[in-house]
Design goal:
Elements (H helix, E strand, L loop, with lengths): L1 H51 L6 H5 L9 H7 L4 H32 L4 H9 L6 H12 L2 E3 L3 E3 L2 H7 L15 H29 L3 H9 L4 H12 L1 H16 L3 H7 L14 H8 L5 H29 L3
Antiparallel strand pairs: 1-2
Helix pairs in contact: 1-14, 3-14, 4-8, 4-11, 6-12, 8-11, 11-14, 13-14
């Protein structure tokens, strides 16, 4: 009887040893990735918090052994920056304008692609091309399309876009040249962001549409439901998880917008380097060459807080509206 009781204990002990060895191997395999995350992700994040709350933190001064008091002076400096409101306004508007437009267009294109059979793969490839193209290169192309060029009698053009709208009797508009208005600049940047953001959203939404059970559409067709009602009552609810995902990621990407503006206007973040299209991320990059790491860190945390709030709101709305 005693021998029989000992056998299960040995088995349990052996199983526990095997689990311990497997966990040890798992941590061993994960260690390179964890070490890289600690060095290049977690430590910089913690260091950003430290620099943000070190009053007047300067990268050059710290080398000389200077110490800094704990406080919120860096945040005050950022908020009181003469163009901070402009940076914040540009950042918010880029998100508010481009995210809804690009999401709606991507959904409509994805529905259209899902409903056709001939040349579907070719169309998918064409629509996906902007996503794999360098953003700076695309920005330079957009700059060339909207730029007015005049070199004496040799070259005289109002730009490709102005030539197109001129067909409809609309006069030439100064979109990106020196002296152009903030509204014209914003229009060009928003057009670029929408065009560049659509491919990824199409890919995600098209994948969701292709996984929708076709029986729902067949039942709606039998009941004589209109296509518009089918779209709002079947298609949108069934792809709502994908819609929630692309909306959240789009807002996060929109708040971090920088490369598109550099591609169109250069590092000056505006026509002639006037900085009128600068964003919060652009402000952070402007502070880095000046070794104002405290201000840059404070601006980064402000942006982090905004993204966190918007993401939390999106998450709350998703729980109410998304059908999983």
């Amino acid at each position: 009887m005693n021998k029989d009781l000992k056998k299960p204990k040995n088995r349990i002990s052996l199983k526990g040893d095997l689990d311990g060895r497997n966990q040890y191997k798992a941590w061993l395999y994960l260690s390179p990735a964890l070490i890289l995350l600690l060095i290049f992700s977690f430590y910089p994040l913690i260091n950003t918090f430290r620099m943000a709350f070190a009053n007047g933190y300067n990268g050059l001064a710290i080398v000389g052994g200077e110490t800094f008091d704990f406080g919120i002076e860096n945040f005050k400096t950022v908020v009181n920056y003469v163009d901070f409101k402009l940076c914040l306004k540009n950042t918010l508007l880029l998100c508010v304008i481009t995210v809804p437009i690009s999401t709606v267009l991507a959904l409509l294109i994805a529905v259209a692609l899902n409903s056709i059979k001939p040349l579907q793969k070719i169309y998918q490839t064409i629509f996906f091309l902007p996503y794999v193209t360098n953003s700076i290169a695309i920005g330079m192309v957009f700059n060339a399309m909207f730029t007015r060029v005049g070199l004496g009698d040799l070259i005289q053009t109002q730009g490709i876009i102005n030539n197109i709208i001129g067909i409809f009797g609309i006069g030439p508009i100064n979109f990106v040249n020196v002296g152009s208005s903030w509204g014209a600049n914003m229009f060009v940047v928003c057009t670029y962001i929408v065009w560049n953001a659509i491919p990824f959203k199409i890919l995600v939404l098209l994948g969701g549409l292709q996984n929708v059970n076709k029986q729902y559409y067949e039942a709606a067709k039998i009941d004589g439901t209109s296509k518009l009602r089918t779209f709002f009552k079947i298609t949108i609810p069934l792809v709502s998880p994908m819609l929630a995902y692309v909306i959240i990621t789009s807002f996060i990407g929109g708040f971090k917008e920088y490369s598109s503006i550099v591609g169109i206007f250069g590092e000056g973040m505006g026509p002639g380097g006037n900085g009128q299209m600068n964003t919060i991320v652009g402000y952070v990059y402007n502070m880095l060459p000046k070794s104002n790491l405290g201000n840059a860190s404070a601006a980064s945390l402000i942006l982090f807080g905004i993204i966190l709030i918007v993401t939390a709101i999106n998450g709350y709305v998703s729980k109410k509206k998304v059908h999983y």
